[in-house]
Amino acid sequence: MGFAMRAGGKQHAETIGPTEFDYVGMSALMASPDRGDSLRCPSCGTLYPDSFRVCPLDATPLIAEASVEDPLLGTILGGTYRITELLGRGGMGCVYKAEHVRLERRFAVKVIQPHYAQNADVVARFEREARVIGRIRSPHVVSVMDILRTHDGRPCIVTELLEGEDLQKALERQGRLPVPQALKLIHRVCLGLAAAHGEGIIHRDLKPSNLFLTPALEGGYTVKILDFGVAKLVGEPDLTRTGAVLGTPSFMAPEQARGSGRVDERADIYSVGAVLYRMVTGRSPYTGSDPTATLSQLLNEEPPRPRRIDRSIPEDVEALVQRAMARDVEQRFASIREMERDVRALAGKELQSSPSLDALVMPESARNLEGSENIATLQRARRARPLAVLSTLGTTAYASLAVAAVLASTVQV
Fold first, then answer.
1. CA 9 to CA 5: how far, in whole Å?
2. pLDDT (tens digit, 0 to 9) for every residue of the chain, 413 residues total?
3. DSSP, res 141
4. Is there a contact between 220 and 353 (Cβ–Cβ < 8 Å)?
5. What single-letter DSSP state applies at residue 302?
6. Residue 148, strand partner residues
7. How far apart are CA 74 and CA 76, in angstroms?
8. Secondary structure, 3-state, 228-257
9. Which residues are registered as beta bridge partners of 121?
10. Could you please report the per-residue DSSP string of 54-70?
């Protein structure tokens, strides 16, 4: 068993063999500003801490980050998308901000690093991710707008540009969420997953860092599911060989950790339960000292029941978490739709009264001011609609009375 380091210093459980590699998806491409990476390999573009002197991948001497010029900045991809800003960089690729040259719209563009563009397995998984996301129609899954190539032939994915931050950062800042707010968020995750499962797509790597919180039109925040890089398509050949472990130990299902080739939609249900566990308890279900220890706990131990950690968690919420995270797949919810109905029933009036995540306070640095202004405009328009309808009804009623009066006077004559 090997563990490959992901961007941002997080470890990603994966068996590394001749046909396996550390695939990094959209959410993991962001280099961590807290890690202090300031040296880059001029050959593959990978960032390293100051303690490194050469690139471990190709032995190229590292150079200071500031001295590296990005050849994509300022270029126009496909005659449509002008690259304006580097948003983040990881070992496998980069994410840029781009402007549409004919429309006043901005997008995110994900591009593979030149070093990995020659790896047929990486390119195949990268392009399949675009096709996978493109099949899903849900407001709770990131939208793919286009897939094209850079001038030097590297594939890239164009997606909607999201404002906000991932759930992992929000939880690191706030510790845990109030139960009603956690249920609201999980309800949206269930809806997004239901759309994916309806297309025969199993995510296989659901966790807080792959759930992105973004401002909602109604106020507060909603959620988008990211990173389908290791997704499984039912009925299609799997790019991951049997026995390989892909995912994150703290949130993956036991059968997935064993490398079973029979992983189905219920593995995602387990992960949703694990994310809800993290939100309401303030800790992950398994907290080993390293990924190997965490994986061992997952395979051999039951996590503490949520109410053992916090007695204020309602018993029915604990029961929902326990059922979703059952080690026996037959004891879990049969489908994500079934789980969604139970989540909705538990949330009750909370879900009906407000679809926003009011308990989440996002820092100003995570917000896009221009996008916030657009959202505020849409919110004002939405508030104005009832007034417009009432005004129209009033005018119609008045006109009807006037017509009736004229008809009455005509009859009398």
1. 6
2. 222 223 333 333 333 222 233 333 444 333 333 444 567 777 776 777 777 888 887 788 887 765 557 889 999 999 999 999 998 876 678 899 999 999 989 999 999 888 788 888 888 888 888 888 989 999 999 999 999 999 989 999 999 999 899 999 999 999 999 999 999 999 999 999 999 999 999 999 999 999 999 988 777 788 999 988 888 888 666 655 544 556 788 899 999 888 767 889 999 999 999 999 999 999 999 988 888 888 888 888 899 999 999 999 999 999 999 999 999 999 999 999 999 999 999 987 555 544 444 455 555 555 543 344 444 444 554 454 444 444 444 544 444 544 444 444 444 43
3. B
4. no
5. P
6. 156
7. 7
8. CCCCEECCCCCCCCCCCCEECCCCCCHHHH
9. none
10. B-TTT-PBPEEGGG---
**Amino acid in the structure at residue 116:** Y
Contacts of the segment 260-268: beta carbons below 8 A, 24+ positions apart: 263/202, 263/204, 263/232, 264/202, 264/234, 264/329, 265/197, 265/202, 265/335, 265/336, 266/329, 266/332, 266/333, 266/334, 267/202, 267/204, 267/329, 268/193, 268/197, 268/202, 268/203, 268/204, 268/206, 268/336
407 burial (CB, 10 Å; 0-12 / 13-18 / 19+) is exposed
Distance from C-alpha of 359 to C-alpha of 350, rounded to nearest angstrom = 12
61 DSSP β-pair partners: 54
- Our answer to whether residue 205 is catalytic in this structure is yes
Give the SS3 label for residue 149.
strand
Which token pair is 24? Answer: 């990094």
| Pair of tokens at residue 243 | 């026995």
**Alpha helices by DSSP H, 136-178:** 167-174
Beta bridge partners of residue 215, listed in sequence order? 221
**Residue 186 parent element (H or E):** helix 179-198
309: number of Cβ within 10 Å: 16
Q: For residue 223, which phi and psi values (nearest 5 degrees)?
A: -130, 150
| From 22, 37, 166, 205, the catalytic residue | 205
| Look-up of token digits 């997080």 | 10
pTM confidence score: 0.72
Question: Other CB atoms closer than 10 Å to residue 296's CB: what's the count?
Answer: 15
* Type of residue numbered 261: G
User: Is 70 buried (19+), middle (13-18) or exposed (0-12) by CB count in 10 A?
Assistant: middle
